[in-house]
From TrEMBL:
<dbReference type="InterPro" id="IPR043128">
    <property type="entry name" value="Rev_trsase/Diguanyl_cyclase"/>
</dbReference>
<dbReference type="InterPro" id="IPR000160">
    <property type="entry name" value="GGDEF_dom"/>
</dbReference>
<dbReference type="InterPro" id="IPR029787">
    <property type="entry name" value="Nucleotide_cyclase"/>
</dbReference>
<dbReference type="GO" id="GO:0052621">
    <property type="term" value="F:diguanylate cyclase activity"/>
</dbReference>
<keyword id="KW-0472">Membrane</keyword>
<dbReference type="GO" id="GO:1902201">
    <property type="term" value="P:negative regulation of bacterial-type flagellum-dependent cell motility"/>
</dbReference>
<feature type="transmembrane region" description="Helical">
    <location>
        <begin position="12"/>
        <end position="30"/>
    </location>
</feature>
<keyword id="KW-1133">Transmembrane helix</keyword>
<feature type="domain" description="GGDEF">
    <location>
        <begin position="233"/>
        <end position="368"/>
    </location>
</feature>
<dbReference type="GO" id="GO:0005886">
    <property type="term" value="C:plasma membrane"/>
</dbReference>
<dbReference type="GO" id="GO:0043709">
    <property type="term" value="P:cell adhesion involved in single-species biofilm formation"/>
</dbReference>
<dbReference type="Pfam" id="PF00990">
    <property type="entry name" value="GGDEF"/>
</dbReference>
<dbReference type="InterPro" id="IPR050469">
    <property type="entry name" value="Diguanylate_Cyclase"/>
</dbReference>
<keyword id="KW-0812">Transmembrane</keyword>
<protein>
    <recommendedName>
        <fullName>diguanylate cyclase</fullName>
        <ecNumber>2.7.7.65</ecNumber>
    </recommendedName>
</protein>
Amino acid sequence: MRWHRVRRRYIGWLSLSLMSFTALMLLITYETRWVHPEIHAYFSQSGNLTGQQLATRSRRYLEESLGILLEEGDSEAVAQRARFQIELGYSLFDIGVYRNEYACTVPSLQRLDGLHDTLSRGIVPSPALLSQDLLAPIRCLTEIEMDQLDRRARVTNQFVEETRRHQTQVLMGSLAIYLLGLGFWGMHERRRRQADRATRESLRWMAQALRDPLTGIGNRTALHDDIDAQAGRSLGLILIDIDYFKPYNDALGHPDGDRLLRELVALIAKALGGEARLYRMGGDEFAVLLPCDSAGTLERSCALVVDQVRRAALSHPDHPAGPHVTLSVGGVQFIAACEAFTEAYAAADQALYWVKAQGRDGWQTGRVMPMDRVDSP
């Protein structure tokens, strides 16, 4: 239950960290979409900012027409050339922006209309009239140029300031979201580590719950779990009892008794090899579970356990039948299943007590129903 709570928090912090980085990407995308139209408006050839360019071109055409009329003399060809330049200048001058925003535009266009009509008749006006008809529109166009330049400068400065402000906002927002994301990620990592620790702690407690704290081997619960995990397999169950263990404890004390239990576990494990699993059933009683495909395998295993302890010659000062520690062993072969285990345990226990009744220090195998054979020392 605790692990599930930690897991939910872990997923929650992970989601928050991903959301923060997603917000960062959305902010950058928004600012990019804001900057693009502003750049387009500034550098495109649309809007009032182009007015300065049109006024400049119109003024140049009018200045060229003035130069033609003043320098090339009085002739119909000169008048036609000047009229053409005036038409070009007029077309660029006569736009709605200039008419609506500059008071000098309409009077200047009227003067140009009159001059155009005069030149159409092949007449070149006097320099005084030219000064009135052309210089006034040229001055008007110059004012428009200057004003448009001022507008461009203001728009440019505004664009620069807006861009700087938005860049600062993007930088600060990105930094805040980035730090927030790192914070969420750090919390997520902490929760993940807590989840890992909780899992390891749960596994450790589960392992401890299945082990005997004195000897480190499995307990009764572990024996049942291992049988359930091997359902359907042919197994051998061996029950082991230390002969006269209480007198041993009484003579040497419980610390020596505990040491003897650990030594016997090591000897049994050595005798049976790696595939056998040992369990302490309580007190001085042990069980062994091992793969067993025949009665001969079970018999050899029982004999190995008894012989290994005999060869070890562990001292037993109060053994009524000799100076060394001995074992009574009973075994049975069965097919792993919950129901079969109860009968198998009873059969192995019956074989063990048969050995005890015969004087101990020996082994006996049994069947799940009747017993098989006897081998007493």
